[in-house]
Design goal:
The protein is mostly beta strands. The chain is about 0% helix and about 70% strand. The protein contains no helices and nine strands. The protein has a nine-stranded antiparallel β-sheet, with no helix packed on it. The N and C termini lie far apart (about 45 Å).
Length: about 150
């Protein structure tokens, strides 16, 4: 048996201009000799923040192993000082690097700041995967920050 060498290389380029920022990351896993490229765009837009992300991987590696590529987008709409509504969507192509096993997900997250350091979060997601059909999941969480 072989042991992973635990060696990899990652480079990051980031830029910001006003309310817009972009991060571009490239990573190479020397154990499997495969890599991944990730990009994240974030922009203050109206009363919220728009985020768009994309990832591509040459094959499964330590940096990304869920799919050959994926794209995602969300918009965190600040409805009030305490209440944020975030719709989001994501698409994966060739999940687990299996051809024609695609997946997409849409969801909605509601965040409410009850008081300083205490928040409630509720999420519901609908997922449709070619190989396993569709599912609906969600959660309700109370979170205390100290």
């Amino acid at each position: 048996t072989t042991r992973p060498n635990g060696v990899g290389v990652t480079g990051l380029v980031t830029a910001a201009l006003g309310g817009v920022s972009i991060d571009l990351l490239g990573s190479y896993d020397t154990e499997v000799e495969e890599g991944a490229i990730r990009a994240l765009l974030s922009a203050d837009l109206g009363p919220g923040k728009l985020q768009i992300a994309g990832i591509w991987a040459s094959d499964p590696n330590a940096y990304y192993n869920e799919a050959e590529w994926t794209v995602a987008a969300s918009y965190a709409f600040k409805a009030t000082e305490k209440f944020t509504i975030t719709p989001a969507a994501q698409y994966w192509s060739d999940r687990n690097f299996i051809k024609n096993d695609d997946q997409w997900r849409v969801g909605l997250t509601l965040d409410y700041a009850i008081t300083e350091g205490l928040a409630a979060k509720a999420t519901i997601n609908y997922t449709d995967r070619d190989s396993t059909g569709d599912s609906t999941t969600g959660f309700l969480r109370l979170q205390r920050n100290f």
